[in-house]
Design a protein that fits this description.
Elements (H helix, E strand, L loop, with lengths): L2 H11 L3 H17 L18 H8 L1 H17 L4 E4 L7 E4 L6 H4 L1 H14 L1 H4 L13 E3 L1 H5 L4 E3 L12 E2 L8 E2 L11 E3 L5 E10 L4 E5 L4 E4 L4 E4 L2 H8 L4
Parallel strand pairs: 2-4
Antiparallel strand pairs: 1-2, 1-3, 4-5, 6-11, 7-8, 7-11, 8-9, 9-10
């Protein structure tokens, strides 16, 4: 105890108990209003703050890894020997299952171990975390037929994708898809096509509801889509070419 602390302690002994109680209450109010909290000791056991639920979750990780590995083997046996990497078909990169860039994703025991390690050591990652929100997902495995049905893709330059029909497949109309949700009556008379390039025709009317947008074309056919659905609005300079009449 240093001299200043000893002096304060001596002064406190001169106060009556009711005054000391009042000081303690005032100090508590000041601490609460200033946002100060008591410093909590760090547990010696780094897992001491785990709940029974999280312990059970991590106890089942090895089974999850085994199930993933079995699913990968099943996919390969079914001919799904390519990996579709990318958020959508428009940004798809196609890899073979042997691609060096995909080895880490296919090593499921290592993937789950890394996930667990990050959860245990990264405070920002595990704070108020519902683990199922960020669980490591299996790669999307597809067949050759699945790939060729895609309107666009890029073949990986690092692995054997020689069986693919294209190195870089582009839509017939290489433009960004248009959301049904964004269409309005200003788009009447524009020519539309599906994502795979099939021409739908020239829009004669557009009906907009709370849930869907319906395009009616000159031949009476219709196309209906919600907010998550897309189609191609053919560039004006190509309209004459694709429908054989003046734009």
């Amino acid at each position: 105890m240093n001299a200043d602390t000893a002096t304060i302690a001596n002064k406190l002994t001169e106060l009556d108990p009711s005054t000391i109680d009042s000081l303690i209450q005032v100090m508590g109010l000041v601490r609460a209003q200033s946002g100060l909290t008591e410093v909590q000791p760090v547990p010696e056991d780094p897992f001491a703050l785990e709940t029974a639920e999280t312990r059970a979750y991590w106890d089942g990780i090895s089974q999850r890894a085994e199930a993933d590995t079995a699913q990968i083997a099943e996919n390969i046996a079914a001919g799904r020997i390519y990996i579709h990497a990318g958020e959508s078909n428009s940004s798809a990169v196609i890899h073979s299952v042997d691609c060096v860039s995909q080895r880490k994703e296919l090593d499921r025991p290592a993937v789950w171990a890394q996930f667990e390690d990050r959860w245990r050591t990264d405070a920002h990652f595990n704070t108020n975390l519902q683990m199922s929100w960020v669980e490591p997902l299996l790669p999307t495995m597809v067949t050759l037929a699945d790939i060729e049905d895609m309107p666009a893709y890029n073949a990986c330059d690092r692995c054997d994708t020689s069986a693919l029909a294209h190195r870089k497949k582009r839509r017939l109309f290489n433009v960004k898809p248009t959301s049904f949700h964004s269409l309005s009556r200003t788009h009447i008379s524009r020519v539309f096509a599906t994502l795979d390039g099939a021409v739908l025709g020239r829009a004669e009317s557009i009906t907009i509801t709370a849930d869907h947008t319906v395009l009616t074309f000159e031949d009476g056919a219709t196309a209906t889509g919600g907010k998550d659905d897309t189609l191609i609005m053919v560039p004006a300079k190509l309209e004459h070419e694709v429908i054989g009449q003046d734009a």
